[in-house]
Amino acid sequence: MSTETLIPKPSRPWLATPKERFVTLQNFLLSVVSSYLIVLVTPMKGKLPLFFMFFFSLIILSFITQYRAKGKAAAQDSILTVVSVLAMSIAVVPIISIVGTIIARGYQGLHWSMFTQDMSQATVNDPIGTGGILHAILGTTIMVSIALIISLPIALLTALYLTEIKGRLSAPIRFLVQAMSGVPSIVAGLFILSSIVYPITQSYSGLMGSLALAILMIPTVARTAEEVLLLIPNDLREAGLALGATQWRTVAMVVVPAVKSGLITAVILGVARIIGETAPVLLVSGGGDATNLNPLEGPMGSIPYYVWKSFLLGGTEESSHRTWAGLLILLIWVLLLFGVARLISARAGKR
Amino acid sequence: MSNQDSTSNEKENTEMKTAVTPSSLAGIAQSHTRNVENSQLLGMGLEARGIHAWFGSKHVLSDITLDFAAGTVTSLIGPSGCGKSTFLRTLNRMHEFIPTAAMAGSVLLDGKDIYESGTDVTKIRLKVGMVFQKPNPFPSMTIGENVLSGIKLAQLKVKNHEEILEECLERAGLWSEVKDRLNDHAGALSGGQQQRLCIARSLAVRPEVLLMDEPCSALDPGSTYRIEETISQLSKTMSIIIVTHNMQQAARVSDYAAFFLSDGGPGQMIETAPTSELFSRPRDKRTEDYVTGRFG
Amino acid sequence: MSTIQKPPTELPARREITTKPRFSDRVFRVVVTTGGLSSLIILGLILAFLTYRGFGVVRTEGFGLITSSKWDVVEDEFGNVVSQDYGLAAMLVGTILCAIIAVLVGVPISILSALYLEFYATSKIRTFLISLIDLMAAFPSILFGLWGFAILMPSAEYWAKLLNKYFDWIPVFEVPAPVFTRSPFIAGLVLAIMIIPICTSVSREVFSQTPLDRIQAAYALGASRLAMIRAVVIPFGRGGVVGGAMLGLGRAMGDTVLNIVYQVNWQVLFGVGGNVASLILLKIGEADMEETKALMAAGLVLFLLTLLVNGIANLLVNKLGKSGR
C-alpha cells in the first residue's frame, strides 16, 4: 500500500459519446429535410406545418435509431424526449410572438404627445400626434392604487388568520379564497354595478372600478402572502412568545418584517393581475376621454379601455396604431412590474 | 491490499466451539458459516478497479479496488461520511444522477466494464440491484404489483408472473405474511415488511449482485434479524454488498469486510479481509482503532 | 443511596390548561378574523346581489334561461318593449365549447412541458424557461386576445378551411356558410395558449415534489426515464396536475375579452355566435331595466358555473391526490 498512485482525471462516461451525438445530429438534419419534402408534397403551406413535420420526423427517426441500438423500452423513452421538447417549444413560441408583434406594431403608434394629451379632443382615427393616453395612464394608476389600498389590508389579514390564528374557520376560508380567485372579472364588475352603481351612485366613477379590481386582487395577494408567511419557521414565533410578547406584537414586529419582501412581491403580482383587466373597468368606470383625477366623480379612463375603444371604434390605420401602442404601454408596464418583483425576491433570497 | 480467494469453496467453520454467546466481534464473525454450492452461482461477480469519485471539484473517493465474488457477502464498514454509499452507487451507475458527479476507474460485471461507452445502463441495473436505507415501495401499487414492478418497468417478457411473485416473496421471507393480501396497498405494511418487499421487488428482475445501503438502520431488531436471514439465503447464489454502520451486523452477516476511512480528504479503503480476520487480527492500526471502538 | 421510583398506583386527573389573553391580543384576534372572513362576505354579497337583481327574470323564464337560445328584445316604434325572450343556451354552449377546446389543446402541452422542465432540461435552460413561463402567466388577457386576432386568426383561418375541406364529414367541422374567422376554434386556441403558463407552472411544482427515493427506486430497478415517469411521477402528481388543469379551465371560462373578440357557437369552425361574457358586455350599454336584470341573471349563471368547476377541481385534487402518495 505504499505505491504513490497518480490521481486520474475525473470523467463522465455516462454522457453521450461522440458517436451518439453524431447520430442525434444526423436525425436532426434528416428531419429538417423530410419536413420540407412533406410540406412540398401535401397541400399544407407555411411555417407551421414545417415545424410540426420536423418534430414528427424526428420522433420517427429517434424511435428507429433507439430501437436498433437499445431495444423497445429505450425507443419509447426517446419518443417522450422528443415530444416533451416539442411541447415546450409550442408553449414558448407564443410569448415570443406576442412580445415581438406588440413591439413591432406598437412602435409606430408611439409619440411624445401620448404622454401629454388625452383623448377629449381627438378621435381614435386622428393621426398619432393628436390625442394621447395621458388620461388612460393616470386613470389606470389611480384606480390600481386605490384597489391596492383596499385589498392589501384585507388580503394580509386573511393570510394572517390562516397562518397565525389558525382558527376553526381556516379550511372554509381557504376554500373561499380559492373560489374567489375563480370569479370571472365580468362578474366582479356586475356585482359592483348591481350593488353600488345602480342603487346608490347612479354614475360611473374610478372608485367603482377600483372596487371591482380589488375583488380580483384580494385572492391573489392573500394566497401569495399565505405562502410566504408559511415559510417562516415556527421557531421565530416561539422566540417572540418566549420573550413574553403578546401574539400581536410577535406578529407585527417579528413575523411581518421577516416576510416584507415576500409581501411586496405578492402585491406586485396582484397589481400585474389587475392592470390589464378590461371587463370591470368597461362596466363600471365609464372610460372617459378626458383626464379625470377625481376617482369619486365621473368616468375615468384606463389603458385597457383606451385599447378597447381604439380597436372597436376605429377602422383606420391610425386607430390600429393606437391600439397597438396602448398594448405596448401595457406590456412595458407588466414587464417592469415583473422585473421588479423578481429583483426583490432574488435579493431576499440571497440574504 | 489483501485480495480475496474468490473461487475456492471455503467453509469457515467454528474452530473454537464457543457454546455460550460469543461476546466479541471476532467471535460472532467466526460463528458465521458459509455454505456455497458452486453450481448455483449467478454470474462471475463484480470487480471494482481503481474507482475515484468527485462531486464537482471535491474528491470524495480515492482509488478503491475490491472484488466481490458470487456467493459471498461483503460488508463495507467505516465511520459516516467516508464515501461508502457513494462507492456503492458507482457500482450500479446511480452515482451519475447527481449533477456534478464525475468518476474514474472501472467496474467489471462478468468481466465487462459497465462504464464502457455504448453500454445500456438500464440493463446494468437489472443485473446489479439496490435496496435503500429507507424502504421505498411504490405507494400507488399493491403488494403484488410492487414485486412485479421491476419487470413491468423494464418491459421484460415473462410468462409466469405468479410463480415469480411467490418465489421472490418467499426468498425475501415475506410470502407467508402477505400471501393472502397481495392486493392490499404496500403502504399498509410495517417498516420491516416494506423493506422485505423492496428486497423481493429487486429480486424479481434476477440480479446477480445486490447492493444494500444500510438496509436495517431504520428497522427494529426483529425485522433486522429476518432480513439478515434473507441475506444469508440470498448469498448462496448472488453476490451481496452491504454498507453498514453496525459492526455486530457486519460480523453476523458478511464473509468479507472492507474498512473505509476518510481523513478529511477523499475516502479510501484501508483494509479488506475475511470478516473474522478483520475483527480479530486487523493489520492497520486505524482499522484496529475503529473495530475496538476507539473512534466511530 | 439510590432510590427506585415505583410506578404510580393511581393516575391523577388531567388539569385543564387555560389562559386569559391580554386585551390587545383579543382585539388582534377579532380584527384578523374579521379580515379573514372578508372573502366569505364578498362572495356572499356577490351571490346575493346578482340573485336579487336577476331573480325576477329567473322566475319568468324558468329553466328556459339556460336551455333556450333566443335572446331577443322586441320593441315597438315608441321604444316600449313588446316581447322579451332571454335564453342563454347558445352562449353557454359557446362558453363551454371554447373552454373544452382550450383544455384539450392546452393541458397536454402543459403537462409535457412540465415534464420537460423538471426531468429533461439542464439547470440554466430550466431557470430561463421557468421565468419565461411565469412572465407569460402575468400577461393580461387583452394582450392574448388582440394578438390572436391579428396574428393567429389569419393562419388559423387557413387551417380551419383546410380542416373543413377534408374533414367536413365530421359534424363539428361543417359550416353552413363560409365564415371562418372568429370561430370557437380560434378562440379555443388562444385560450389554450393563455392557460398553458398556469397549468405548466402548477404541474411543474407538483412534479418537483415527487419523492426522490421513489424515483431512485425506479431507476435502480432498471427503468428508463419514461418508465420511471409513468410509474412514479404520474401517480404521485395526478391530483395536483388535475387541479392545475381545472384552474386553467376556470380561467378559460370566465375570460371576457377573449370571448368578445371571437364569437362562439357549437359548430367549431363557424364564426358566428356569442358567449355569456360577451353577451353581457355587448348588451349592457343599451339595455333597459328588464334586460339589465336578465343580464344580471346571466352573470349569476356564469358565476355559479365557475364556482361549480372550482368545486369539482378541489374535490378531484383531494380525492386523486391521496391515492398516489
Briefly say what this structure is.
The complex is a heterotrimer of chains A (351), B (296) and C (325). With 296 residues, chain B is of the alpha/beta class.
Could you give the order of strands across the largest sheet of chain C? Answer: 1-2
What is the overall silhouette of chain C?
flat
| CATH T-level fold name of the largest domain in chain C | MetI-like fold
| Chain-averaged pLDDT of chain C | 74
Second-tier CATH architecture of the largest domain in chain A: Orthogonal Bundle
What do these coordinates show?
The complex is a heterotrimer of chains A (351), B (296) and C (325). Chain A has helices at residues 18-41, 47-70, 72-106, 134-165, 170-181, 185-201, 206-231, 234-242, 247-258, 260-275, 279-284, 303-313, 317-350. Chain A has 351 residues and is mainly α. Chain B is α/β, with parallel strands linked by helices and 296 residues long. Chain B has helices spanning 25-30, 84-91, 121-127, 143-153, 161-171, 175-178, 191-203, 221-234, 247-253, 275-280, 285-291, and strands at residues 46-55, 58-68, 73-77, 101-109, 112-113, 128-131, 209-213, 239-243, 256-261, 268-274. In chain B, the strands form two sheets. Chain B has a six-stranded mixed beta sheet with strand order 6-7-8-3-9-10, sandwiched between helices. In chain B, strands 2-1-4-5 form a four-stranded antiparallel beta sheet, with helices on one face. Chain C has eleven helices and two strands. In chain C, 71% of the residues lie in helices and 3% in strands. By secondary structure, chain C is mainly alpha-helical. Chain C has two domains: 26-85, no CATH class; 89-323, MetI-like fold, CATH 1.10.3720. The N and C termini of chain C lie far apart (55 Å). The chains are: A mainly alpha (351), B alpha/beta (296), C mainly alpha (325). At the A-C interface, helix 3, helix 4, helix 5, helix 6 and helix 7 of A face helix 1, helix 3, helix 4, helix 5 and helix 6 of C.
Can you tag this structure with a few keywords?
heterotrimer, A: 351 residues, mainly alpha, 2 domains, 13 helices, C: 325 residues, MetI-like fold, two-stranded antiparallel ribbon, 3% strand
